[in-house]
Amino acid sequence: MKTKLSSFLIVLALLSGSNYGAAQSTSFFRISGPAATTIMAFRADGTLVWNNSLAGTNYTVQMATSLGGGTNWVDYVQLPVTDAVNVNRIIDPNPPAGMRLIPAGAFQMGDAIDGNTAGDAPVHTVYVSAFYMDQTDVTLAQWQQVYNWATNHGYTFFEPGSGWAANYPVETIQWDDAINWCNARSEMEGRTPAYYKDVTLTTVCRTVGSGYYLYNSCVKWNAGYRLPTEAEWEKAARGGLNGQRFAWGNTISWSQANYYGEPLIIGTDRNGITYTNGLAYDYSTPQNAADIDYDPAFSHGDSSAFWPYTSPVDYFSPNGYGLYDMTGNVWQLCWDFYTATAYTTGLSSDPHGPVVEPSSGYHLCRGGSFWMSANYCTVACRLQRVSSNSYNGNIGFRTVLPLGQ
Question: Average pLDDT, stretch 176-196?
Fold first, then answer.
């Protein structure tokens, strides 16, 4: 059946609420699906009311920032339909400060292009409920504000955190530290914490290194700040665009993210044999002899000793959901323990990862970093794994917040 574009309503979306001075912008939305629909209302809180849909099918809300032609529409969220009349909140004109609404809906999770190179196949459909996510990685300034409050209110941490400057991502923190920081942020703002030391959900996590282990049953999923699940992270990272390597398409350059450049090189060795190195979709422009390098805007040193570093958290353009640096800069901690088998055999709606800790004991990081080449920075890559008490200078995090909190 051919996809038809429904009637559409021009909508002014005030994408504000940023702590970093992002300008308000106009967005237009329309609905694409197997049959024409009618938009009945677009409420002040960003809720779309529409009807005449076919139950048991999928529709896609598409977005454009201008109406200058028919090629500027991009997918925004996929909506599984069960009734003829539908009510879906697709934006929030007044989100929590520094956060964006990630609308409820389905998406295609996994790598549809490069195969199972990082345990990221096969592609499978996952439904994720709406939530808020930090627009940027937690900055050094944000970390220090909460950290200083927390250490005066019964919290302990393995590491104090570090970073290049106030508006750069915090680095050198452990997964356990991020868990406690989320709880401290919640308590500092008068919210109910999300993480607890046991399944009774009575003793808040405020200390580290005391021999307790956290499982899915130790989390109040509808409470305060927490790390994103793997599914939440990937849905947010895609920005509504399915089936692509990155949130903007299938190629990448230093104008879009901070990462290790390794573009395609085709040459002939001393024996006259043709060789191929690098990635055809990497459009970075290294200047050294090997044609691999860090972005010169965020590295220093000479030809034998380069030292890369992070970029400011709002340096590159945001994705379709208004999120910065979901590709490159620093790896971002997720909640889930890593297993290859649980990737497609778990829940297809709001999966939280393995129920108990696997023998590996590793948690997932997503998004790549300034150290990593482009194949590690794709939105589907799930190769990086860290233990609860490990850390390094290219791992950071951002938090999510349930609706109603």
Answer: 97
Q: Count how many Cα atoms sit within 13 Å of the Cα of residue 184 in the half-sphere of its side chain.
A: 25
H or E element: which one contains 176?
helix 175-188
- Domain tally, the chain: 2
Do 227 and 87 belong to one domain? Answer: no
Quick one: 62 and 161 in the same domain? no
For 100, the enclosing helix (H) or strand (E) is strand 99-102
Per DSSP, what are the bridge partners of residue 162?
171
Q: Residue 264 — very low, low, confident or very high, per pLDDT cuts 50/70/90? A: confident
**How many other CB atoms are there within 10 angstroms of residue 196's CB atom?**
20
C-alpha–C-alpha distance, residues 31 and 10, integer Å:
11
Q: Which residue has the tokens 């339909």?
A: 81
CA distances from 181 to 52, 178, 391 (A): 46, 5, 15
Report the C-alpha gap between 261 and 282 in whole angstroms: 7
Residue that the structure tokens 């059946």 belong to: 1
